[in-house]
Fold:
Amino acid sequence: MWNTFDRIRPHLEEQYRNWEPNPETGLSPEELEKLADRCFESHRGEPLILTKAAIFELILTKARIGVDPADWFADHLQSGNVMNKYQGLRKAEGYRKLPSDCEDASSLYPETGTGYAALDLSHTSPDWKSVLELGPTGLRDRALHAQKSAETEEQRIFYTAVAVIFDAMRKFIERLAEEAERVGAERVSGTLRAIAHRPPETFQEALQLSLLYDTCQELEGEPVRSQGLFDRLFLPFYRHDLQNGILTRDQAKELLKFFWTKFYAQGHPNGKNFGFGGLEFPGNDTTNELTELGFEVYRELNTINPKLTFRVSKKTPDFILRRVAECIQAGITGFVFANEETAREMFRKRGKEPRDIYDFIFVGCYEPAIMGREISCTMAGTYNLLKPVELLFHNGNDPRTGAAVGLPCPLPRNSQELEAAYFRQLTHQLTRIMERGKLYEKIWPEVNPSPLLSGTMPECIRKGRDISDSGTKYNTSGIMCAGIGSAADALAAVEYLVFERNLCSMTELKNALDNNWNGYETLRLEALNHAPKWGISDPSADAIARRITEHTANLINHTPNTRGGTFQMGLWSIDQDRTLGSKTGATPDGRLSGAPLSRNTGSTTGMDRRGITALMNSVMKLDHSEFPDGSVLDIMLHPSAVSGKEGPDIITSLIRTFFAGGGLAIQFNILSAEDLKQAQKEPEKYSNLQVRVCGWNNRFILLSPEEQALFIAKAEAGE
Amino acid sequence: MSVARIVDIKHFAVHDGPGIRTTVFLKGCPLRCIWCHNPESVRTVPEIALLNRCTLCGRCAEVCRCHRIEKGKHLIDRTSCTGCGRCVSACLCNALFLYGKTFTPEGLMPELLTDRLFYGHSGGGITLSGGEPLLAPEFCRDLFRLLKTEGIHCAVDTCGNIPWNAFETVLPFADLFLYDLKQMDSDLHRQYTGAPNERILENLKHLDDTGKPIEIRMPIIPGLNDDPGEIASAGRFLGGLKHIIAVRLLPYHSFARSKYQSIGHADTMPAVESPSKEKLDHLAAQMQKEMGKTYRNCPVLR
Structure:
């Protein structure tokens, strides 16, 4: 039965694309949709959470399923588009009812590359501890038990929905078990039978349950953005199996390969995030034999999905950090490193209890949240930090569309007025984004109650309240702030060109920008090559970045949301450096109209002219404990800088240095411009060349031509 | 007060001694190796480099008569250049660079200290290289003295072709010597580098006697010093020393060719391929063998 992975890996990687479900196992998507429509009609008038549970049950008990006898795990479900459709309908209905206050934050702001306010259902993680300790029947029974002491009708309804939904999950697992027996899939049938009735006991059972929970939550309509802390959650199961002779270490490795390949095959574009390492109460390091096994498997898989988060503290052993550095050196870069010490300080400032902080994870890419106790909506809003620069030149109007997205203002006459004008526009816009965000939050319970996800959260069960209704202990709302490098460069350039060197007047500079620098090439070169820049450890540019982030953090982190928490500032951009940049006109830093913003906390492309130590020195000057929605630095290294035996030590030194300097998260690319250009010419030879895009990985040859060009420019700048 | 002309300061230097370092390149060299990969550091006088980013805008010509733009070409009168650097400030394309700014040790310190967090976490520090740093021994000593008060690791990268007393000047402060070994046969050494090697080998023995750790660096130049006999002879010599901590074989590469052009020097090196990885592995194994029992654990890096 063992040692089949390498042989059938190609088949496993295509397991969803090539799947033809057996019609005898259930209804076709069309039939399912008809039935669901009827179900929806017959439930009209009752609380949405019950309707949702009913439709969820219908799909899990009636949809076609499949089990592959060659696989160690089962999860195939042809759910069709039913849940999506109802979620879409409810959203559309809810949004129609929204008042018009601050409407521009969700209409004009996206159009003008300013950012947006939204309802973020996408950044969640369940309480994996409850899932694995209780299993579906235990989770159902926990809700039913709590129901006995329910005080209100609303609570009773909540508990009923949770019980229905976990019982539906149990039925789904039983159906898979029957199908497994029918097709002779011995590898999985026993496992499925077991976890349908009791919590998992073995490594395989725990992995299987975790996979099925993930399938169910994705079906419910909230993408799972962290699979929890792998080396903590699964350690008892792994040790149990080794002690009882159920598995060997090699067999456990193979199981994990089958398991992780599920996520690769599902092909979530942003990757599935598994956490590792970190401290546990009362402050000891948790890395263990499963940490090592996990990293070993990841290296052997050489995959772009899942992606791993490694929590690194001063107590993290050097040898295990080196193990990961060796992966990075080999170009397996699907890791983000999280700084335990800065994260603790950051959570502490946000009022989180010290005991809770030990359970933090990165939800999504690098947005910190407490597993099982927090719904962090990390992209409730996004914001382009460069936009206010454009607005202050144009009387508060977006020059490309003419939309009045800012405040009317005269051109600044000196440095003080310049920064005051910048902050005035920024404060105005961010305030509107948050005000609009609050309106979205208020309609959340009517749009998307989440009985499955809520049912895992101990605090939701205690209170009898759904996550959409602030059931969890911590309820926060993140605002992604993009382009800090570009914003600092732009303000520094105005200062340099107009107020310091008198190379032009504000009006002349405005004309240059309005003409996309055409006819102002000399001035543009002054801006590009002589003005101070973020990322070269320049004191004046770094001080501007520090003032921008302090002001913005102060504003965002102290604005209450409507869910009993606050908004939280994030200092990152993911790939919106390009989307936001594409709608932003020419800026004083020499940037041309439509060009990308700086990515995450890094410099504008090509402007980190003094190497990575200078870049890191700039970034370390910011107070990263003030960015509770996360911050991250991308490091691009030429392969020759980390070659040989000393290479991994250089990588670990960079991580340790950045973390000692207060950074929160860091990720790496090991690329040479030459290799990338060659990969464009001969993609077939470079199909395995992976890049860390911005919080997830992809194969270089699959990136768009624009994104490829950006990586080549970044690699060239570093050489 | 001691001063020196600095070619360049390289941050995140990871091949010039242990850890993450900042390498300061001093201008001026007593050798003229035909394969030199730092031609900008050979002469003691300041030199202007013209990089191919030049857009022929002519702003440099406006501030200095040494620059002319003629028939689509940027010409520099290098004999009249005093290294004042006004052209560099005028250039908007970062196409000009001045090699040979004058610094005092105190003047260099702020920049060298910016990366101290990196030195501390990687076991790195400062390396003085060149050119030949020990042509300015007092400057090296004074700079090291300042660095040592900050607890920073100090290394010297030397070609060895200098009076012994220059070593004595820096010995109390240097933690590590990177010592070049280019050719064991003195006649060939003279032919390839312009000087015989007796003093270099003599100094190396002296240095070894002081007990300071030494990393040997051998450039491997195809056709010139990469034959087994040469490696054997170097290995035997090193085997007789006591404080070699590593031998690093540095394969020749042609990256420096554009540098020759940028500073208007004639490129003296015939076209050769870089040595292959297999060749380097082979030479390393032979070196390891020749160095004998004393150095069974001394790594030969490549």
In short: Chain B has a mean pLDDT of 94. Chain B touches chain A through 21 residues (CB under 8 Å). The two ends of chain B are 40 Å apart (CA to CA). Chain B has two domains: 4-45+100-301, 47-99.
